[in-house]
Amino acid sequence: MDQFVSTFTNKIDTKGRVSVPASFRTVLAKDGLEGIYCYPSLDAPALDAGGQRLVDKINGLVEDLAPYSDERDHLATALFGTSEILSIDQDGRIIVPERLREHAGITTHITFVGLGEKFQLWEPKRFETHLAEARQKVRDLRKLLGAGRRGSGGPEGARE
Amino acid sequence: MDQFVSTFTNKIDTKGRVSVPASFRTVLAKDGLEGIYCYPSLDAPALDAGGQRLVDKINGLVEDLAPYSDERDHLATALFGTSEILSIDQDGRIIVPERLREHAGITTHITFVGLGEKFQLWEPKRFETHLAEARQKVRDLRKLLGAGRRGSGGPEGARE
DNA sequence: CGTCCTCCCATTGACGCCCATAAATTCCCA
DNA sequence: TGGGAATTTATGGGCGTCAATGGGAGGACG
Prior knowledge:
Helix content of chain A is 41%, strand content 21%. Chain A is an alpha+beta fold.
């Protein structure tokens, strides 16, 4: 498996450490960054995270812009400037800096959410409501799509 | 990691010294310049800084312009003329000359902002507002990128 | 002779490395 | 196939090292 899947909720200990789900660590190990690249999501109260693949993608975005252009500096500021490389200790734990926790409203527990090539870190309660909204949106969307295809199937394919 | 990432705010002591973030020192050490190349940003109240890689890049920019052209002289003046090589002492600290601090409005604290291949020095308060603007610009920019690039693998990193 | 700068040392707090425990899971073997 | 052992995972805590910061001693230069 080379993708981040499923969700896990782990506890932050008194030192601020959290275990990274084992399956996520396996994926990270394969793409050669000893650490987790992590930054605040631009439009959600959550943190985006990933490994070397994610870094490469961001590099690609920035390098496509002209050197010394405003655009490039802004993009680099918003992405690199707000990012952290979270090192994974030998027990598979990371420390999420205060600045990042604050953006996501994280206090005692963190929910790790696999999104395929990257994953997100959420405050558990917030993720619950976010998930509910996302599912509702999918249902609405499918109604529109489905209206043209078939009469009325139950909510089947797009679930979970 | 061979890139400048994340932001750090450090204090200037009574002798005018500031610690360079350890992770930035690591990156600098790898690219072989004894010190930090530093000059006022062209379009922001901040200082641009980096190592040998940045110097090479700037050389490349200047050399691309016609010799003895006005453009070339202006660019060379604006960049080289206002630059300084800041030496790093054995405790990892630099002294930022008055002229440079003035351009950035720096007084007691300096915020180091990683931008990948280079980094910037900001007055902390100013950087806060600058970051907010940058994030907004990126959100707008992403809409454009996302709309146009859908098929090619997509700007995943900047989404969400 | 005083100012500025370089080198060196001290302190404090954060972080990394190590070990311990408990629960859950996998594996093995009768 | 059932049960027990070994492994893995999540979590807790001790301790040494390093980074950030402050301050002093010595030297160069006006």
